[in-house]
Amino acid sequence: MDLHISNQVSIPENEITLSGIHAQGAGGQNVNKVSSAILLRFDINTSSLPQFYKQRLLSLSDRRINKEGVIIIKAQRFRTQKKNRDEALHRLVELIRGATVIKKKRRPTQPTKSSQQKRMNSKTKRGRTKDLRRKVGYEE
Question: What is the side-by-side order of every strand in the sheet holding 70-75?
Fold first, then answer.
């Protein structure tokens, strides 16, 4: 079974390493004896992903990607191992899809004449209101 990223791209399951680990946090005795958390490891460099995907992933400054180019995801939100496994795989897919999105370059714009005029009018009006609050006959 492959993990589908897009219509053309999918990851074979043998490239993803899943291992059960003890979950952290509260849970009583059960947390100490059951390995319900999942640790997912995915090596970007040795994967069958297209080169474009690899470059984009390696250029990310994400704490889940280490220096060797291995994605490490720890899923422990749920109490069952199956739900945590699905969660880890879902997070991997979202990370890979997010890396391929090319953000639109922001063009800085200038404020319009009318917005500048409105700003100045509101400042003048606010100043008049404050002047009216002064004591009568008060001069500096």
Answer: 16-21, 37-43, 70-75
Separation of alpha carbons 37 and 88, rounded Å: 10
According to DSSP, residue 55 is labeled H
- Contact in structure between 91 and 44 (CB atoms under 8 Å): no
Q: Where are the domains of the chain?
A: 2-100
DSSP H or E run through 16: strand 16-21
Rounded Cα–Cα distance for residues 73 and 128 (Å) = 59
pLDDT band at 32 (very low <50, low <70, confident <90, very high): low
* pTM of model > 0.85: no
What is the DSSP secondary-structure string of 90-119?
HHHHHHHHHHHPPPPPPPP-PPPHHHHHHH
Q: Which fold has domain 2-100?
A: Double Stranded RNA Binding Domain (3.30.160)
For residue 73 the two structure tokens come to: 């995801």
- The identity of residue 87, as a single letter, is E
Q: 72 has which bridge partners?
A: 41
